[in-house]
Design brief:
Layout: E1 5-12, H1 17-22, E2 28-29, H2 35-40, E3 44-52, E4 56-65, E5 76-81, E6 93-103, H3 111-129, H4 132-135
Bound molecules: flavin mononucleotide.
The site of flavin mononucleotide has 23 residues, from helix 1, strand 4, strand 5 and helix 3.
């Protein structure tokens, strides 16, 4: 297992493909100020817990990297909060604690295979986060602070 790490900030808009093209709405975080932290952690798919000050704590599975399928030129932090929200929460303070790593970023020959892989990541994350080893972090005070 990984030494847990924590990042937070306001939710920003991504490229807008997440919910529209993939059906996977990610709550992107600005990478500003996280340059050195991001270079310490390889690109790939991680899981952990996400706190939204007004809404609670949720499981999340997250991609960090350049999204080879879409040829991004910037590294992005894209957590998928595993909960159905009724509304967007752009601008709200999002706190993440990252507790585990699933796989490196990959390229895919079709959008369908990318989507299937991400749904498999979701399942891996949901099951792992129920283990005491990882579930204990959902009470981490960092997830609840609002500034
Ligand atoms: N993109 C890739 O190109 N390769 C991947 O292996 C990959 N894995 C992902 C795993 C998860 C759990 C998530 C949430 C996203 C992953 N993505 C991957 C990123 C999607 O391509 C990305 O969310 C999509 O580009 C939408 O971005 P947007 O919200 O900025 O439009």
């Amino acid at each position: 297992p990984l030494e847990p790490w924590r990042i937070g900030g306001p939710v920003v808009k991504g490229f807008g493909r997440g919910s529209k093209v993939l059906g996977i709405p990610t709550a992107n975080l600005s990478t500003e100020g996280y340059g050195s932290l991001l270079s310490e952690h390889p690109s790939g798919v991680y899981f952990g817990w996400a706190g939204l000050s007004k809404r609670g704590v949720f499981k999340m599975v997250m991609s960090i990297g350049w999204n080879p399928y879409f040829n991004n030129t910037e590294k992005t932090i894209e957590p998928w909060l595993l909960h159905n929200f009724d509304e967007d929460f752009y601008g709200e303070e999002l706190r993440l604690i990252i507790v585990g790593y699933i796989r490196p970023e990959a390229n895919f020959s079709s959008l369908q295979s990318l989507i299937e892989k991400i749904h498999h990541d979701r399942k891996v994350a949901e099951e792992a986060l129920d283990l005491p080893l990882f579930s204990k972090y959902k009470d981490d005070p960092y997830l609840k602070s609002s500034t």
